Amino acid sequence: MYVVMVYDLEADRTHKALKLGRRYLTHVQNSVLEGEISEGDLATLRNEVEDLLKPGESTIIYELSSDTLLNRSVYGDDPTDEKRFL
Amino acid sequence: MYVVMVYDLEADRTHKALKLGRRYLTHVQNSVLEGEISEGDLATLRNEVEDLLKPGESTIIYELSSDTLLNRSVYGDDPTDEKRFL
């Protein structure tokens, strides 16, 4: 399946969510990762996200069947340019 | 259709993207809005996003058919608590 993960952590902890997400997904914009993932890896990712978050932080995981994402439009600078990410 | 919009603007300009997105969508997490939107409103939103962005900023709009979002999981604090948003 295909997932989009959007994390919202304290500024000095965002790198932890990015590092975690990158084990399974592709970083596509500040705080956003997406990609194909197996059900097993998704279950692992969900557990790891829950363990990571502190009070006041949150993460949303959108789960799509792989063929139902109708359109993905990027506006502005290409956010997959890794140089933009700290 | 259903859309998820994730914006990445300079810190002192994020409120502009939020204000724009809120005309059509629901704010669900820092930098993330989502909701049902008509094709006409989506076309307008796309134009407005393009006009808003400055170099180095970006926004992704995921467009789904309304019945294909398999699952939406929120981890951590309820991000729809508006008190968390500036």
TrEMBL record, chains A, B:
Its EC number is 3.1.-.-. InterPro entries: CRISPR_associated_Cas2, Virulence_VapD/CRISPR_Cas2. Its cofactor is Mg(2+). Keywords: Antiviral defense, Endonuclease, Hydrolase, Magnesium, Metal-binding, Nuclease. GO terms for biological process: defense response to virus; maintenance of CRISPR repeat elements. Gene3D superfamilies: 3.30.70.240. It comes from the Archaea. GO terms for molecular function: endonuclease activity; hydrolase activity; metal ion binding. Pfam families: CRISPR_Cas2. Mg(2+) binds at D8. Belongs to the CRISPR-associated endoribonuclease Cas2 protein family. Homodimer, forms a heterotetramer with a Cas1 homodimer. PANTHER family: CRISPR-ASSOCIATED ENDORIBONUCLEASE CAS2. CRISPR (clustered regularly interspaced short palindromic repeat), is an adaptive immune system that provides protection against mobile genetic elements (viruses, transposable elements and conjugative plasmids). CRISPR clusters contain sequences complementary to antecedent mobile elements and target invading nucleic acids. CRISPR clusters are transcribed and processed into CRISPR RNA (crRNA). Functions as a ssRNA-specific endoribonuclease. Involved in the integration of spacer DNA into the CRISPR cassette. This is CRISPR-associated endoribonuclease Cas2. It comes from Haloferax chudinovii.
